[in-house]
Design a protein that fits this description.
The protein is an alpha+beta fold and 329 residues long. Helix content is 24%, strand content 24%. It contains seven helices and 17 strands. The strands form four sheets. Strands 1, 4, 5, 6, 7 and 10 form a six-stranded mixed sheet that branches. A hairpin with a 2-residue loop joins strand 2 and strand 3. Helix 4 packs antiparallel against helix 6. The protein is extended and about 85 Å long.
Length: 329
Amino acid sequence: MTGPGDATNGPELTPSTPSSGGQLSVRRGGETLRAVALEMRLLSVGRTPDNGLPLPDAGVAIRHAELARDDSGQLLLTDLGNNSTFLNGRRLQAHSPTLIGAGDEIQIGPFSLTYSADAAPVPLPAATDRATRVRDGLRLHPLRPARVPQRPQLLSGGASSYLAYLPALFEESDFAGRYLRIFENLWEPLQHRQDHLAMYFDPRTSPPEFLNWLSGWLGLSLDERWPEQRRREWVRESMTLYRWRGTRYGLTRALEIACGVTAALEEDASRPHHLKIVVPEDAQEPPTDQAQRRELVADIVSQHTPAHVHYELEFVTLTTQTPAPGGHP
């Protein structure tokens, strides 16, 4: 189950003659996953497979950061507007290139990237069963608290602020202050909406009743069984899901957003066009919620798996729930 964009090195990886060399050792949870030789002028870091350094986790943005070499060979790290990239524990300002040196540690989501200037080989862990390592990535993503909408406050007492626009003579009139308060309570909510109109077209801040309207623009149908936060995330990442539809990443990300689970996709070379999808479950979840989640998983898998691929679902119970780092989903 692959696609043309599933290659590790995507278009953001620009080869060049290595000037300073060096490498990044990528770790997660104290385990070294891989070592990346910095033999290019530009290296993109993000969640999707078309990044030069893909970090597959819901806590990593699609385009999270960039590592680039300047003309003098120095290495610069830039956060691409996510405000969630850390260098030695310090949060980086977005779109502000920062010089990094030997031994510096970059934190992106649950990953730690340590820069080594001498490009010495990094010892990798001993080879283990691939299926076991794939299942180590099973995650449950609990919902974030729902945002509370803030609505304009109506005036319940006192004189209207509109008196400030009239001659001082009217400020002494109690009737004029109460009369203008009627119009202020009518017009100010409209003015407030006009001043923040862009927020209505952003799925992160749009009123809940606008989500279905926004999804209609994109040809989406939102499942009413999804919580509001998941429907917002589905609309926000719809273009990415369209782009990766039919690939391993597309199916994995669709399950993360709609069902709150990071599943493991297992393929067997002896059984072509066959996919086994291992889905984690919370042991503390009520049976009714568990049954509904299974139904949602089955719906998403049937919609996002290529038609020629046969699949089977396996649900496994996690003893402890691993929360999703960062703000996704």
